[in-house]
Specification:
Blueprint (H helix, E strand, L loop, with lengths): L2 H13 L4 H7 L11 E6 L3 E7 L19 H19 L7 E13 L8 E12 L2 E10 L2 E14 L4
Antiparallel strand pairs: 1-2, 2-4, 3-6, 4-5, 5-6
């Protein structure tokens, strides 16, 4: 295992924080489709809190909606999935093999309130179960301590074919 992967695995399991540099090491997503800026309170792949700082400068607000900017619900779900995927991949980096995560299911999804520019979305993720390469997570998106969306997401971690 190289030092970069070793440092990431230690940070994810012992220190409990994953900054943007580590997130980019674990996820293939890039701006403008990276929906998390930081992950805190990491407990292996059992739980974590992903953070997304919503900015008016994001290109999605040019059309969603002019004069009444609302962060799209599907991107909130994507942020939940990316948080779960990042901790699942980080927990498995001890193998030294690059992985990718695929979203499989979204169940029990409910949107409670809109997120707007200036909001800090926290994605509270808790593992429900893990079976081989598949995991299911309970996810709640919160702004200022209020649940704005919730869902159960399922994902599959696979070795990456990218070279």
């Amino acid at each position: 295992m190289d030092a970069k992967h070793e440092a990431s695995a230690v940070s994810a399991s012992e220190l409990g924080i994953m900054d943007i540099t580590e997130i980019l090491q674990h996820l293939p997503h890039r701006y403008p489709f990276l929906m998390i800026d930081r992950i805190v309170a990491i407990d292996s792949d059992n739980s974590a809190v992903g953070i997304k700082n919503v900015s008016i400068n994001e290109p999605i607000f040019q059309g969603h909606f002019p004069g009444e900017p609302v962060f799209p619900g599907v991107l909130i779900i994507e942020g939940m999935a990316q948080t779960a995927g990042a901790i699942a991949i980080a927990a498995g980096t001890a193998t030294g093999i690059d992985h990718i995560v695929y979203l499989l299911t979204v169940d029990k999804c409910k949107f409670r309130r809109p997120a707007r520019p200036g909001d800090r979305i926290e994605y509270h993720i808790k593992k429900l179960k893990r079976r081989m390469s598949m995991g299911w997570y309970e996810a709640k998106a919160m702004v200022d301590g209020v649940v704005i969306a919730e869902a159960e997401v399922g994902a599959m971690v696979q070795p990456s074919t990218a070279r």
